[in-house]
C-alpha cells in the first residue's frame, strides 16, 4: 500500500531542502562576526568550510548536515566566499569521522540545540494538531511544526518523521473539531441528522440531496420551495452558535465538504466526522437558504416595478396616434389664435370657425388621460401586479426573521401588521399602521387624506421599502450572511486604530483636510493660469463648456506592425492541450487544485486540465469527456465536485501570474504595478429562468458580464461575474486589494465619487477615462471661488462639516477593507442602496469629490496620462478578443443558472487566458532573439506595442489528446513560416 502523504513534491523541496536563490542564501546563510570568529578557530581550510556548512544547515532547514547529503553548489560557494576557503577543500573534511561529530557537538552546545527524541513525539503531534485546527493543508501544518521545534531548540527529525507527525496531528485536529461541534447536539437532533442521509421515497432521494437543490429561477414556486427547505432545516433546530467552538476555517471545511459529498460517501465516514459534516452543512444551508430567499425577493420586487415601467412605455407607444391627432388639433388652435390677432377678430369665434369647439371639448378626456400617464407614479404601476406580489411576499415574510435598529422600527411594525393580516385573513389595515416610506408622495398615495389605507399600494410600498433597506443593511435577516447589519461588516472599533496605521494617508482629520485644501487651492490656481494662457494641450474653454480633444494610445507604426507579424509567424503551432501541459510543467498550477477533503493533489493532472478547459471553452464536462483521450465523464464530474473551487482557481491563477510577471520579456509592457479593469458581456442561454438580465446597451437578449482585472504586463489576475444591469463601479477595488499601489484604469462607467475616495484612502491611483466632464463639476473648499475663469466649471463647495462629523467612520470603513474584513463591492453597494443618503455615504462622497477634482486637473493637464489610460484599456480589449475566441462553444452563451457554475466558467476562462498569455510571452522572447541573431531589427521601443493575447497559432478546438500532450521538457522549435505550404495535418 502506498504511504499516505501530507506534502507535495514541491512543498517537500521548499521545506526540507537548502535554498539556492541569491535572496534566500543571503537571508539564511549570512554568517555573523561571532560565527566567523568561531569558524576561524578551526585549524585547516577543510575544517573551516565543513564547520560553516554544519552551522548553516543546522540553522536552515534545521536537520544539520546528514550523512551522505550533497551540499548544493550555490550554498557551498556562498559559504566558502565568507570563510575565504576554496570549495574544493570540503572534499578533505571529515576524513576523521570524529572531527565531524565533534564539530556537530560543539555547534549543538553553542546554538543551544538538542536532538529530537522519541519522548518528543507526543508534544510534536500536539503542535501539529494545533496548527491543523485551522487547515487541512500540509504545508502550513509542517511549517508550524518546524517553527515550534526550532523555537524550542530541537534539531529537526527526518522529513518522513515530520510528515508522519503532521498527519497524526491533522487526524487529531479533525477528531477534536468533530467532538467540539457535536458536544451540545441532543440525541433527537442526532437522529434527525442521521435521517438526512436515508433515501426518502416521497422525495426519491435523500433529504440532504433535496435540501441542497436550491431553485434559482425567480418565481413564486421557487420562493415556496426555498422557504419549505428553510423550514425543514430550522425544524432540526441546530444552534448556529456552536460554530464558535471550532476554528472558522475548520467549520468552512466541513461546510464545503458537506455541500458536495453525496449521501453514500458521507455514510462511509466515521460517525463523528459524518455527523459533524452534516451539522455544518445544515448551519450553512440555513444562511444560504435565507440569502437565496432574500435574493429572490429582491429580484421579484424589482421585476414588478420593471414590468410596470414597461407597461407605461407600451401605453405611450399605443397612444402615439392619439398624441399626433391632439398635436395637430393644438396646432390648429394656435393657428386660429394667431389669425385672430392679425385680423383683430374674436379669438373664440375664430377657433370655433377654423377648428370647432366641439373638437376641442371632445379632446379633453384624452388630454387628461395622457397627462395622467406622463406623471403616473411607479408605485401605482407596480401595484397593478398586486396579484403577482401576493403569490410570494406573504411566504417570504412568514419565514424571515427581520431585525433593525431604532430607525427601522416602523418598518418592522408594518411587516408584523402584514403578517397578522395574512394569518387572520383580514383585509383592512388599521388606521394607525405606520408609513415607513422614504417618499412623501408614496405616503400620500397609500393613505389619502381623510380616507382608509389602500392595501394594494401599502403592501407594494412596504415590499419595495423592505428591499431597499435589506440592500443597505438598515434592516437585516437573522442567520443570513449576505444581509447582515451594516456595522457587522466592519472591524470592531477597538481594532481600527492598529489597522488604520497601515493606510497610506493621514488618518488625523485636521491634517488630512488641511493638506488636501492647500493642494486643491494650489492646483486650481495653476490650472486657471494655464487655461487662460491656452497652455493646455487639447483642452480649451469655449464659452462655459470645456472641450477636450480625445487622445489615442501611442499607435504602432508600420514598422511595429511588421515586427508583430514576423514574431507571430515564428510562434510554434500548438494544441491547447499541449500548451496547458507545458505551462503546468513550468508553473505547477494544477497542484493548486487540492481535494476538498484531504487537501491532496490529484493523481491524474489530465483530469484537472480537462475540467478547467471544459469551463474555459464552455464545452461542458460530458462533451469534453467525449472529445478527450484518457479521461472519462465520471472522472471529470468527480474532479469538478472535489477539486474545482474558487479558492483553488485563485491559487492556480496566482501561480501563473507570478511566473508571467517574472519573465524579462514582459517588462517591455510595464512594471506590473499599473492595471486596468473592464466588463465583457456574454449572452445567456435562455430568456426565462434567471440565467441573465436584459441590458438595452447590449441588445434585447439577456446575459451577464465577466469583469476582469488585467496588469500592464498582460497578466489577467482577477475575474468575477456581474449582472448585465449592475454598475461596474463597486467592483473596481475588489481585484486590487492585496496588490501594491499603482495606476488603475477603467472606463467612465467605473468612476464614482465613492471609488475615488476609497482608492485614495487605500493607496491606489484611480484613473478612469473621463467622457462626461460637463456633468462632473470641479469642487472647491470654501464658499467663494478665487479663480474667475473657472466659475463655469465649478460645482458646490465641499461640505467639510459632513466629513468632520463622519471622519472616524470613513477611517473605519477604509481600515476594514484594508484588513480584508469585507469586500469593497459589498460596502459600496450597501452605501448606494440608501434611498436617502446616510451620513457616511455623504461624507465618503465628499472625500471622493476632493480626489476627483484633483484627478480631473491631472487629466486635463496631462495628455500623457490620458494616453496611458487609453493604452491600458486597449490591453483589456485585446484580452476580450481572446476570451471570445476561447469561449467558443454553445455560441458563446453561458447557460448555467447558478452563480457558482457561472463563476467557474469565468475562472476557467481567465486561467486559460493567463496560460496562453504566459506561453506566448515565453515564445515571443525566443522569436525576438531569433530575429536579432539574423540581424532583423527588433528594437525595445517597438516591442512595447506587441501583445501576448494572440491565438491564431493555438488549436483551441478538436479532439483533446491529453496523453499525447505530455511534455518532454524544454522549448519547442520556432515555426518556420515557409513550411506552412507543405505541412500535413
**Helical amount among residues, as a percent range?**
55-70%
The unreliable regions are: none
Give the biggest beta sheet. Answer: 6 strands, mixed
- Roughly what fraction of the amino acids lie in strands? 5-15%
Q: Distance between termini? A: 44 Å
- Number of distinct beta strands: 14
Class from helix and strand fractions: mainly alpha
How does the overall form come out from the CA principal axes? Answer: globular
Provide the residue-averaged pLDDT.
89
Q: Specify Rg, calculated over alpha carbons.
A: 35 Å
List the total number of helices: 39
Task: Write a structural description.
By secondary structure, the chain is mainly alpha-helical. Helices cover 56% and strands 6% of the residues. It is built from 39 helices and 14 strands. Strands 7, 8, 9, 10, 11 and 12 form a 6-stranded mixed sheet that branches. It has a two-stranded antiparallel ribbon with strand order 1-2. Helix 3 (33-40) packs antiparallel against helix 4 (45-59), helix 29 (605-617) packs across helix 38 (899-933) and helix 32 (646-661) packs parallel to helix 38 (899-933). The radius of gyration is 35 Å and the shape is globular. The two termini are 44 Å apart.
Amino acid at each position: 500500500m502506498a504511504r499516505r502523504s501530507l506534502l507535495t513534491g514541491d512543498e517537500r523541496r521548499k521545506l526540507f531542502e537548502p535554498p539556492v536563490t541569491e535572496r534566500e542564501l543571503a537571508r539564511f546563510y549570512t554568517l555573523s562576526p561571532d560565527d566567523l570568529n568561531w569558524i576561524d578557530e578551526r585549524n585547516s581550510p577543510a575544517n573551516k568550510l565543513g564547520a560553516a556548512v554544519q552551522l548553516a544547515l543546522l540553522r536552515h532547514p534545521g536537520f544539520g548536515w546528514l550523512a551522505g547529503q550533497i551540499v548544493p553548489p550555490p550554498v557551498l560557494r556562498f559559504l566558502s566566499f565568507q570563510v575565504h576557503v576554496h570549495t574544493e577543500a570540503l572534499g578533505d573534511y571529515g576524513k576523521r569521522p570524529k572531527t565531524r561529530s565533534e564539530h556537530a557537538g560543539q555547534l549543538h552546545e553553542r546554538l543551544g540545540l538538542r536532538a529530537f527524541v522519541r519522548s518528543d513525539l507526543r508534544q510534536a503531534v500536539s503542535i501539529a494538531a494545533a496548527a491543523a485546527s485551522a487547515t487541512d493543508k500540509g504545508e502550513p501544518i509542517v511549517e508550524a511544526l518546524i517553527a515550534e521545534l526550532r523555537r524550542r531548540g530541537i534539531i529537526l527529525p527526518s522529513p518522513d518523521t515530520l510528515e508522519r507527525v503532521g498527519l497524526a496531528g491533522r487526524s487529531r485536529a479533525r477528531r477534536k473539531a468533530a467532538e467540539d461541534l457535536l458536544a451540545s447536539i441532543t440525541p433527537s437532533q442526532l437522529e434527525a441528522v442521521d435521517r438526512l442521509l436515508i433515501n426518502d421515497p416521497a422525495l426519491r432521494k435523500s433529504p440532504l440531496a433535496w435540501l441542497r437543490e436550491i431553485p434559482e429561477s425567480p418565481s413564486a414556486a421557487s420562493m415556496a420551495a426555498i422557504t419549505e427547505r428553510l423550514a425543514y432545516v430550522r425544524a432540526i433546530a441546530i444552534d448556529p452558535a456552536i460554530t464558535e467552538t471550532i476554528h472558522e476555517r475548520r467549520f468552512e471545511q466541513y461546510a464545503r465538504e458537506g455541500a458536495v459529498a453525496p449521501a453514500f460517501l458521507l455514510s462511509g465516514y466515521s460517525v463523528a466526522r459524518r455527523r459533524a459534516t452534516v451539522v455544518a452543512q445544515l448551519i450553512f444551508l440555513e444562511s444560504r437558504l435565507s440569502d437565496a430567499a432574500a435574493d429572490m425577493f429582491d429580484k421579484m420586487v424589482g421585476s414588478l416595478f420593471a414590468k410596470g415601467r414597461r407597461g407605461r412605455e407600451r401605453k405611450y407607444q399605443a397612444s402615439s396616434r392619439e398624441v399626433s391627432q391632439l398635436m395637430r388639433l393644438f396646432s390648429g388652435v394656435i393657428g386660429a389664435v394667431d389669425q385672430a390677432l392679425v385680423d383683430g377678430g374674436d379669438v373664440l369665434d375664430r377657433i370655433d370657425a377654423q377648428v370647432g369647439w366641439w373638437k376641442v371639448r371632445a379632446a379633453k378626456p384624452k388630454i387628461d388621460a395622457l397627462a395622467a400617464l406622463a406623471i403616473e407614479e411607479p408605485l401605482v404601476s407596480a401595484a397593478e401586479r398586486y396579484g403577482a406580489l401576493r403569490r410570494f411576499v406573504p411566504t417570504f415574510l412568514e419565514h424571515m426573521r427581520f431585525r433593525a435598529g431604532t430607525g427601522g422600527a416602523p418598518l418592522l411594525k408594518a411587516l408584523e401588521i402584514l403578517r397578522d393580516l395574512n394569518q387572520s385573513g383580514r383585509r383592512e389595515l388599521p388606521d394607525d399602521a405606520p408609513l415607513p416610506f422614504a417618499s412623501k408622495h408614496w405616503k400620500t398615495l397609500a393613505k389619502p387624506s381623510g380616507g382608509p389605507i389602500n392595501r394594494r399600494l401599502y403592501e407594494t410600498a412596504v415590499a419595495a421599502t423592505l428591499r431597499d433597506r435589506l440592500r443597505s443593511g438598515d434592516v437585516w435577516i437573522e442567520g443570513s450572511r449576505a444581509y447582515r447589519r451594516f456595522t457587522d461588516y466592519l472591524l470592531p472599533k477597538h481594532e481600527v486604530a492598529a489597522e488604520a496605521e497601515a493606510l497610506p494617508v493621514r488618518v488625523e482629520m485636521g491634517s488630512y483636510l488641511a493638506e488636501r485644501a492647500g493642494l486643491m487651492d494650489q492646483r486650481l490656481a495653476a490650472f486657471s493660469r494655464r487655461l487662460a494662457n491656452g497652455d493646455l494641450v487639447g483642452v480649451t474653454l469655449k464659452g462655459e463648456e470645456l472641450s477636450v480633444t480625445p487622445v489615442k494610445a501611442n499607435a504602432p507604426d508600420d514598422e511595429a506592425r511588421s515586427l508583430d507579424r514576423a514574431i507571430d509567424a515564428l510562434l510554434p503551432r500548438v494544441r491547447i492541450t499541449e500548451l496547458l501541459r507545458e505551462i503546468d510543467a513550468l508553473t505547477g498550477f494544477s497542484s493548486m487544485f487540492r481535494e476538498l477533503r484531504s487537501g491532496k493533489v490529484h493523481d491524474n493532472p489530465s483530469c484537472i486540465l480537462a475540467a478547467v478547459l471544459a469551463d474555459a471553452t464552455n464545452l461542458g464536462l460530458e462533451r469534453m469527456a467525449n472529445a478527450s483521450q484518457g479521461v472519462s465523464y465520471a472522472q471529470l464530474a468527480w474532479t469538478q465536485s472535489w477539486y474545482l473551487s474558487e479558492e483553488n482557481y485563485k491559487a492556480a491563477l496566482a501561480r501563473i501570474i507570478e511566473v508571467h510577471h517574472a519573465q524579462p520579456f514582459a517588462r517591455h509592457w510595464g512594471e506590473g504595478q499599473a492595471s486596468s479593469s473592464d466588463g465583457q458581456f456574454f449572452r445567456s442561454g435562455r430568456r426565462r429562468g434567471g440565467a441573465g438580465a436584459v441590458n438595452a446597451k447590449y441588445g434585447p437578449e439577456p446575459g451577464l458580464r465577466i469583469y476582469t482585472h488585467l496588469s500592464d504586463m498582460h497578466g489577467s489576475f482577477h475575474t468575477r461575474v456581474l449582472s448585465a444591469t449592475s454598475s461596474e463601479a463597486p467592483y473596481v477595488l475588489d481585484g486590487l486589494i492585496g496588490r501594491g499601489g499603482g495606476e488603475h484604469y477603467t472606463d467612465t462607467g467605473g468612476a464614482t465619487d465613492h471609488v475615488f475616495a476609497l482608492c485614495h484612502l487605500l493607496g491606489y491611483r484611480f484613473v478612469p477615462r473621463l467622457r462626461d466632464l460637463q456633468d462632473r463639476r470641479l469642487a472647491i473648499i470654501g464658499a467663494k471661488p478665487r479663480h474667475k475663469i473657472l466659475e463655469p466649471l465649478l460645482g458646490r463647495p465641499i461640505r467639510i462639516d459632513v466629513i468632520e462629523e463622519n471622519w472616524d467612520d470613513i477611517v473605519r470603513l477604509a481600515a476594514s477593507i484594508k484588513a480584508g474584513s469585507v469586500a469593497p463591492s459589498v460596502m459600496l453597494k450597501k452605501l448606494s442602496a440608501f434611498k436617502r443618503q446616510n451620513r457616511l455615504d455623504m461624507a465618503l462622497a465628499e472625500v471622493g469629490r476632493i480626489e476627483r477634482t484633483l484627478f480631473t486637473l491631472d487629466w486635463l493637464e496631462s495628455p500623457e496620462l490620458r494616453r496611458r489610460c487609453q493604452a491600458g484599456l486597449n490591453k483589456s480589449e485585446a484580452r476580450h478578443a481572446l476570451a471570445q475566441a476561447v469561449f467558443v462553444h454553445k455560441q458563446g452563451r453561458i447557460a448555467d443558472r447558478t452563480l457558482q457554475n457561472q463563476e467557474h466558467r469565468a475562472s476557467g476562462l481567465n486561467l486559460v487566458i493567463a496560460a496562453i498569455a504566459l506561453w506566448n510571452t515565453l515564445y515571443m522572447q525566443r522569436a525576438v532573439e531569433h530575429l536579432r541573431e539574423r540581424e532583423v531589427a527588433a528594437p525595445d521601443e517597438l516591442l512595447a506595442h506587441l501583445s501576448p493575447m494572440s491565438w491564431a497559432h493555438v488549436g483551441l478546438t478538436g479532439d483533446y489528446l491529453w496523453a499525447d500532450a505530455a511534455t518532454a521538457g524544454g522549448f519547442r522549435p520556432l515555426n518556420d513560416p515557409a513550411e506552412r505550404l507543405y505541412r500535413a495535418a
